[in-house]
User: Fold these one by one.
Assistant:
Number 1:
Amino acid sequence: MFKRLSLIALALPLPIAASAAPADLPPVAPVMACADLAGTDLTGIGGEGSTVSEAIETTSDGIAVCSVTGTLAPAVNFQVLLPLETWTQRYLQVGCGGLCGRITLQSGASAGCTVLNDGGFVMAATDMGHSGQDGTWGLDDGQRRDFAYRAQHITAETAKALIRAFYGQDARFSYFNGCSDGGREAIVEALRFPEDFDGIIAGAPAMLFQVQNTLHHGWLARANTGADGKPILLSDKLPLLHRAVVAACDRTDGVQDGLISQPAACSFDPAVLVCKDGQAGDCLTAAEAEVAAKVYDGPRDAATGARLTPGQQLPGSELNWQGVFVPDSHNQQPFSAMVVDPVLRYLAFEPARPEMTLDDLQFTTATLDDLRARHPLFDATSPDLSAFEASGGKLILWHGLADPHIAPANTLALHKAMTGTMGADTVAGFERLYLLPGVSHCSGGEGPSNLDLLTPMMAWVEGGQAPDAILTASTAESSSFGQPDGGEGRRDGGMAMKDLGVAPLPAMTRPVWPWPATAALTPGTDYTRAESWTRGPDAAIVATRDWPGADLFAPYTPTE
């Protein structure tokens, strides 16, 4: 579906280039009937058994489209929406979160994008070759490859073939937009198939798949599990923890706004909240404080002290821990445990370990080394994107600083590795990284999370106007874009979770500049208004660290 979202309109001038706009491309009408696409031969793309199952005229968010569904052998399902009257010669493919297993035609980080809202794109998505989240499909070599890289590529080839047939011409420009695993899928496309897309947007990318869905989420679940097998820290203590973190670190960026915009400068010890003798109520038990400390610090090899992840959840993200690894009650299983289970059993190790459970996971450098075998298959952390750059491709990376799922340090580590491998000037010519204060996983959070990266991407690709500051705005709208599916309809993102009773921050609009630039508030102005901010000095924003898996961000040849 074409997802119509709006970005708050402001009357006052903004510190953002207003001239940045996509090319003015006229609509192109179909040259054949929608139903005739049912006869399209896809065997040259997906192999024997690849078929179009249906081609029907319908509407998507009020846009008249030809909806084409089908299967690429052996089991990669796809859907393509081709506008009947409004196509402006552009193609947009969207990724999906978690282990996928479903088709989701929603474009996030594109609020207010006129081309999208007016039905100017052909859109497509895939379930990546399987359904559901149990992971048993990972025992099949072909289905592993489909999830790792093949499904998105052959879906792109299929959509482009349908475009060529339906409109009598190719798309002028092609784009990919994904978050979470969709962000990994986005970078996989740039790395493995540099000619597929002209512009790629990768949000909160789960590109370090092997570590993210084992040692990282496994640690979050283990850290919050007591000897009785039940959660230690529950969500009703998160507001207390968050208030203390904000009180300690809100002004590290010079502005008291309820957001921690420079978490690298934040020093906070949860032990300060431990209940004193006889104290009850607004305090943590020693065990609860230890859970929080373990979350911030991350897993270490007990024998060597070596860290096992490139980064962890950041100060300021505490409210978003709810439902991910901090449940509402002692009877609930952490979402992180649900994420880890199928990956440990069927995907992460060579050979697979179908009997493995979270209790069997050892937080050691030996486990990290065991994960290396499938690193070139599933991960998308090679910083050598020279083929994509040479093809003229553009890449926007973005990450919310209050992400409870994927550490922003991962994304910054890739950016730094790209600069070290390709050179700062080369990277500046085709890539941007935006770190968004207070924003959760792919959307939501206390910070202004409504943004449009699709329009500046089109302006960059089609008109050569490189993006600088982007506008973000508060929103009450929820989005499932990129959100992982925990099975039984459960997704993190605020669904079916109890109200923590935290008053929202004032509605605000704010520009965000590419890393490492910060935003500086003009003295005496209103911090809730975008025009009050200017480009500030460079800063670390997110701390990166040494760990024995740092070489996973070195150039490598992806495997099949």
Number 2:
Amino acid sequence: MASTGGSLSDLSKIPVLAAVCLAALVLPLSFSGGAVATPAIGRDLGGGAVALNWITNAFMLTFGSFVMAAGALADQFGRKRLFTMGVAFFSMVSLALSFAPSVLVLDIMRAVQGLAAAAALSGGSAALAQEFEEHARAKAFSLLGTTFGVGLAFGPLLAGFLIETFGWRAVFLSSTVIGLLALVFGVPRMRETRDPGATGLDWSGTITFTGALTLFTFGVIQAPESGWASPWVIALLAGAVVMLIAFIGIETRVARPMLDLSLFRYPQFVGVQVLPIATCCCYVVLLVVLPLRFIGIDRHSEFEAGLLMLSLSAPMLVVPFLAATLTRWIGASTISGVGLLVAAAGLIWLGRIDPSGDSRAVVMPMLLIGLGTGLPWGLMDGLSLSVVPKERAGMATGIFSTTRVAGEGIALAVVSAILAGLMQASLRDLLPNATEAMSAGLSEAAQRLATGDLRHASEILPMASQSLLRKSYGAAFERLLHILAAITVLSALAIFGFLGRTPVQAANPDEARPLSVS
């Protein structure tokens, strides 16, 4: 169905825009809020390090796996319908989460919540594109991106306030309230649209893609506990490789692939996919790892941790707009690459801060990381469209969104495993006389420390003082940030290389539209 147009000044469109923005607000709140709530959940419900890791990873896994499939379902069955079902189901699951009796039940429901979030995001974005045209559409999506930034910036602070005032269950209950507001005020005024040419869901592609992500995430999260040489971990990772190969084979053969691999022939398109991977490593994973450190290791309250997190995420409210303005004079690749280098410098600086020292010392390096990440963050979505021929823009957006969301889940799982491994090595360095019988205890204590559970780590290793455990954490955390900084620098070099090439042209010469990215 063709769009009837509309501007942001059209009062009939405002409730629709508000509904989609409310849904967009609740998604980053669920991501960051779950991370801040993890220590409180552990104190209340117990659970091992692996189970507590799944509180955030389960949500990100299903969210990232289902984004592309949800887009296809929205085209086939209707954007409004999928958005409505996604938000309604998300609200119901959020309500159920506030009554979760155990960590296992909570993990399972977080996975279901991720599915609903993917449906809400895909349906809402597609519906918004049908409500507005040209400049109004660009402004609407800019506001949508700003809403995401607000959720990331204030999510930890809101979660901290709710946990201290009402308990961790209030974090999930707040998502229910926001979701219901979106349903009541926006959905009745939203038009139903669908793609008449939609052929349905690519089931084989969806199953193999989801299987690859699931097996890989399970393997990486299980590795610190079972060991990387464990037959169980090896089987999971090997299964992920098999599923990935099968997915690639399927997508190269189907008539309407869920993921058109031919787009990777464009060097600039490859460069754009590096951007969300880089921002995952230098920014997104910190939204989960830092609250665990502030609350569990540094002994801050949840609200104090939320205030500290503003240093990292507040720049996202301003810097992306600045980056868009700078493109009038400076190429997008230069802005993005320099931003990543600035973020890498912030990571190195942050790694030098002693966890047992003055907590205010982390503010400036976190601001630097947020400032640097905000530069490519404000350009990524537009670049994903502009570096491919115009007729391929829809598929390019889908691939970019999947890379972004799935990459966040993968990066989080990998970083958690790396931190646990570095923690175990750090403990061995500080406890060189540990006996063979203590090895299992070291491994479990390392996993506990990686999730910010200093109390249980102390119980597992009674011979180690809390100051010694904090010192071990500080050494491991610094090494982790060095690794993330190295990845960020390499990503910056890749951006300079790939996005600095000659702009692509549309297949039809009459529709050519060069992009100045160098």
Number 3:
Amino acid sequence: MPLAAAPRPLLPLWAAVLASIAGGVVLDLAYPSVGWWPLAFVGVGLSLVALIGRSVWGALLVGFVFGATFYLIHIMWITRYLGLVPWFALAGIETVFMAVGSIPIALAYRWLPRRFPSLWASLVALPLLVAGVWTARELFMGSWPYTGFPWARIGMSQSESPLAHVASWVGVAGLSFLIVAFTAAAIEWGRVARFRDVRTAIPALGLAALLLLVPAFPTTPAGSLRVGSAQGNGPSGYFDPRQRNEVLDAQLEASAPLFDEDLDVLLWPEGGIDSDPLANEDTARTLDALSRRIDAPLIVNAATTRGEDTFNTSMLWVAGEGAVQIHDKTNPVPMGEYVPDRWFYEALAPDLIGLIQREYTPGTNAPFFDLDGIGVGLAICFDVIYDEVIWSGARDGAQVYMFQTNNADFRDTDENLQQLAFARMRAVETGRSVVNLSTVGTSQVIAPDGTTIDGLPAGEAGHMLTEVPLRAGLTPAVLIGSWVQLLLGWGSLAALVALGVAVAVSGRRDAKTPAPEGTGVAQAAD
């Protein structure tokens, strides 16, 4: 079959650059603190419109502009920790990935209509391929380099939208795919401009119905857990000046109103103890006394050292027994909790890298505690953004999640609200309640449907005593989420490569085939 002509750009290059700038700004507004979730569709749409018909270099340019605009705004909170250089560095590498990952999207727009120049291929197959390649880019950026940075996935923008429940079926990656697919389908419906033929609206309407009408996967009620939690608001930032055990004392003071309450467990946040209770006998005795005082176990967190390694460790602490179970953070933050390839980065920025003295070792133990027969899933701080950490907790038997975080380095920024949105999405995705507790806020208890049960504002010390619902049963997202990612990521890339090969082969064949005698016209080769 002869190849059709390559599609022309919808926008001239200068307009595509402006659309990419607008798209990056608008997409950021879909996430907290603004959180206008419908704008995710607008931001994605502007990005796609700018890529349609673009050359490789044109796609690289508009993708770079879109990525730079979005990330420089979205993660501006990094400047609160180490200043401008880390902000530019992280935003820069994410921008490069966004730009390079825009090329296969543009190729999908060029190749599929050439190989399959039918109306329905444009309305059905093209949006699905574009969405798959977009999702593959998200998955790559969330896993490399080192442990990646899966912070700004499109699906995560929907934590408070009526679409969040779809994540319980297909995970966050699947939700990203469906949002981009709907947006691309709506664009294609507008491009073909056959509005009188209602059939042409079916693909976009079908995806809209899938997003809006599929209910959350039901998990089974399994009782409740009476959880006390304390937000000490102590000086827990990396560079905060403090006296010895000042953070521990702040946590004790915030916990005091719970001393005479009936608790099943007392939860403290990440970094709620500023000494190692596994090595410091005074700290261990303090935790023993606290556990005895409330007549309940504790779930606490501190930096711990075992042998030559230092870990970011959560502990299930029982009076008289100490840490009966531990979980070490699975994915310490590169350039925050450790410096990978320190010799290389110190050569580039010795003063800046020299500020980061801690070197946490990645944990290998399960993110799960058995609390007197009740399964508790765990995620320490940024581990909440890693799918496998969350899913493995559910598969191990978690009936509730307890997320411990320390947002003190990012006080008064959007960071804690963005992270809270991720916690909310995890509740919906797994059909489990989440207790998301920060040293400095914002802390909340979130129901399995994503609604807020209890909460504490940022920047204030306080406590919560909450009857937290428990759930049993695994959502499809937990069971098949990794397969969904494999299909959407590698499957979409494989389809694109196969499409490119088919276009190249057909192009060579057409170039060798003379035009019919008398036409005076030959088919153009790609």
